[in-house]
Amino acid sequence: MDSLKFDHDHENNSHIITNPLNPQEFRRHGHLIIDFIANYYQNIEKYQVLSQVKPCYLQKLLPESAPYHAEPIETILQDVQKYIMPGITHWQSPNYFAYFPSSGSVAGFVGEMLSTGFNVVGFNWMSSPAATELECIVMDWLGEMLKLPKSFLFYGNGGGVLDQMLSQFGRDKIGNLVVYGSNQTHSVLQKAAQIAGIYPKNFRVIKTTKSTLYGLCPNSLRATIQSDVQAGLVPLFLCATEGQDQLQEDQEQLQEDQEQLYEGQEQLQKEYVSHLEIDLRQKWKIEKHGDDEKQDHNTNTPFEFHPIGPLCEVAKDFGIWVHIDAAYAESAFICLEFRHFIDGIEGANSFSLNAHKWFFTTLDCCCLWVKDPSALIKSLSTNTEFLRNKASDSKQVMDYKDWQITLSRRFQAMKLWLVLRNYGVANLRNLLRRHVKMAKLFEELVGLDSQFEIIAPRNFALVCFRVLPSPKGMDGYEKGEAKQVERANELNKKLLESINGSGKVYMSPTMVDRAYIIRCAIGATLTEERHVTMAWKIIQEHADTLLSKY
Amino acid sequence: MDSLKFDHDHENNSHIITNPLNPQEFRRHGHLIIDFIANYYQNIEKYQVLSQVKPCYLQKLLPESAPYHAEPIETILQDVQKYIMPGITHWQSPNYFAYFPSSGSVAGFVGEMLSTGFNVVGFNWMSSPAATELECIVMDWLGEMLKLPKSFLFYGNGGGVLDQMLSQFGRDKIGNLVVYGSNQTHSVLQKAAQIAGIYPKNFRVIKTTKSTLYGLCPNSLRATIQSDVQAGLVPLFLCATEGQDQLQEDQEQLQEDQEQLYEGQEQLQKEYVSHLEIDLRQKWKIEKHGDDEKQDHNTNTPFEFHPIGPLCEVAKDFGIWVHIDAAYAESAFICLEFRHFIDGIEGANSFSLNAHKWFFTTLDCCCLWVKDPSALIKSLSTNTEFLRNKASDSKQVMDYKDWQITLSRRFQAMKLWLVLRNYGVANLRNLLRRHVKMAKLFEELVGLDSQFEIIAPRNFALVCFRVLPSPKGMDGYEKGEAKQVERANELNKKLLESINGSGKVYMSPTMVDRAYIIRCAIGATLTEERHVTMAWKIIQEHADTLLSKY
């Protein structure tokens, strides 16, 4: 490329900048940008939720090279409005119901600004003690809100369950490691597994069906593990997930999953490690003491099916590391009426939550509780003269660099602290309940329309539904009539494209068994009842138009 | 822990919050916080650069639990000032000279605010086309500023050098992979290697000495690789680094390194992969055409020692992937007078830069250019129904989820775009030159004091020096008199503790060979000449006090 234009540093620079962190400039630009974003939230409903631009739209609009001279912030903001905004898919829109929420908040934003303002690199305690210590405190606060056992908390008594298994196996066992997943999570889990060096041939995809509610049955799991152990293999990792809301979660949780895997791999010469995920399918409606086949879809008695306890029992028998990832729903567990979903958690080794999804904390903020942090530290700690300091040497402090892969680390705790304090436990609970209530409303609206079907029971604030080509559509599906299934899938795909193309709402699809499903995830901070009822009206209108063509 | 206080949701909530993203609240809190941070920058010199708090200081100051009711932002900001500020190590202070710069800027901050405000999760093109497209454009802009060959740019012609080597080796070769490093980078590189599943026995630490200027000699490297290949092993990764400014960089670059490794591992069944880092030791002063032993420490003719070209030649002979990481200094390569440091880059496969260090972009912003992205995509792409969409299926767009480990992704390009536009190429070059000029000044000041020694030549804006117990201190060192060496190290350790303890400046240490060195890294945005001369005065004062006791 020709960059001759950069080759001569001529001095006729209209804007010579000597201090890019000038406090007066900071004040002026900062206030400008606050108003810009405040106006954005004020007018957010005017934008099409899903961006309707065509590929490479931006390349045609922006210059080929960076400007040689400085450009004023006002010009740049005009370009953000003119060129960037059309390419934004508005996750903060009250009409955003796709994938999972990315629920922003004023407190989260303010917290992010503070950590960006300080811009400290908190890789060890000394590099900014407040960053490390506030993180410990805030994790304990949230852990208490979730009623996690003390053993998960920094100021609790800690665990040590792994120590007795140290140095049992050799690193050369890596070829024997086995990862278990369901047919719902294949590609995702396999990415994690392969990155961690698991042989593809040792990746087990345990088939799940509607009859097993797309969830892993502990017994079949135990059987599979046993046969592998008999074959001299080492069970490393299990990820039991269900079709709809887990598919995304596995991917969202990939980083934590991988940290487990890296650790597992690194720890291999010391112990067996594995990972279990809670099957949200547990929330399927089963009669008390009912068997896998007997289902009652009208009651909701969670965890009669795959309670955490029994899962931990299986794990314990194989000396397996249990990681509980109840996915985006976890934040709801701060509400007393939902907490029982994680009863039995005391048997697990680690637990994770994405606060940047449904907890009003801006991207990104993954919380991971570990019973025995020494397992992480053993595998991830580094010590070079360059990083040595009295505090670390004194062993009185912890250095988060030893808990993670990278050295760099933002002041992450700040925004979570702001969210917890500026809203408080009571409001946070009520805000989550508000979303669940709206999801119930949406579910009821769908239920009232015989043209539609709730394909899977509602999990917290996620409703999975589809339109039926005919009232008989489902029979065809049940009887496995391929044509009927295909017709239903085609129809729902068209419906989703049609509503998303309108720019008025944005929802996303998934496949459950062979059925193409539409997911409505309620959790955007700005969403109110009126948006939910409007979304449903739009869906009905577009469905009517489509069905009239059939 | 007792969380009974949370067990009853009584309704007497003083602050009931129904919309945490209320635009009016956003405006009010946003303006408050802008003034808070602006004041912080205005008064930043009043704070002790290195936090002087004791371990667990914060636990004693904050409540044990999250508040049940909402707390006003004003109260929280008072607590930030009262409780958090003392625990901050002020990376933005003009008197911060430790580790590496974390150079913030108004434009970087504003960009971060915008991406936080939009709070989009840009895992694929469709989830916010602008996020993906702006990133491609900005990476090309910066690539052009660095004069990278077209083959590294999105809108260049791309590479494909790896294709011919596909499916040559089996995954079971993982036990044969060899990673090469120098004795300067051991613990760090080993962390990366182990996480990626490299057997510790296949981790080669090639000894470097002062006589080889702590840099890897291509010939000895070639010999080591050859003997491994003859032994049937597979060279995967080489990291050639030098003592001072690389130690940190290896750790900072860990993530990129690991991405290379993950990829390498995942690609193993397809190709040989390795990784070379440019040895900043190249910037040691060597006579033109001089051999390794002959040194002239008064001239500066870089790259007579380890030019990129020859390194790529070695790599090519072994079909090795070459990654160039010239570390924090890279941003200086946008200046014509420094660009020759990366002459020969066209022979490399990938190139990385940390814009969050010395490029006025807030944490975090790592830029990675890859000649053949298909190598990454082959190993890191996932495809589930949940993420499928017309745009991705059309293959007209790229999805960054396939370039990285995690799914979640912030709108990273925004802040880099703001920095490039709001400052422009001319200012960015001059700002970097200003830092180099100040480092030259500091180097001169040290050079004028016979009690001090520049232990390693200045690299860009990094000066490495130490105080000498006596003018004869160095002789002792040269003769390897352990006592002398120890005495010098003890003295410099005390000096560093003394100046850092004063809270007036903050510098960090490193070991070069057996010598304890003090590093002065100039790059904080607010640093001016007066801060550099003041820092030097402080060092002299503290040194005099210490030496008077000897």
Q: Write the element-wise H/E pattern of chain A from the N-terminal end onward.
A: HHHHEHEHEHHHEHEHEHHHEEHHEEH
Helix content of chain A: 40-55%
Sum up the overall morphology of chain A in one term: globular
Kindly report the average pLDDT value of chain A: 77
Give a nutshell description of this structure.
By secondary structure, the first copy, chain A, is α/β, with parallel strands linked by helices.
What attributes does this structure have?
homodimer, about 550 residues, alpha/beta, four-stranded antiparallel beta sheet, about 10% strand
Account of the 3D structure:
The structure is a homodimer of 550-residue chains. Chain A is of the alpha/beta class and 550 residues long. The first copy, chain A, contains 17 helices and ten strands. Chain A has helices at residues 23-43, 73-84, 106-118, 129-145, 186-195, 218-230, 243-252, 254-267, 308-317, 336-339, 355-358, 373-380, 390-393, 413-447, 473-478, 482-501, 529-549; strands spanning 177-182, 203-206, 234-239, 323-324, 350-354, 366-370, 452-459, 462-467, 508-512, 515-521. In chain A, the strands form three sheets. In chain A, strands 7-8-10-9 form a four-stranded antiparallel beta sheet, sandwiched between helices. Chain A has a three-stranded parallel beta sheet with strand order 2-1-3, sandwiched between helices. In chain A, strands 4-5-6 form a three-stranded mixed beta sheet. In chain A, helix 14 packs across helix 17 (529-549). At the A-B interface, helix 1, helix 2, helix 3, helix 4 and helix 5 of A face helix 1, helix 2, helix 3, helix 4 and helix 5 of B.
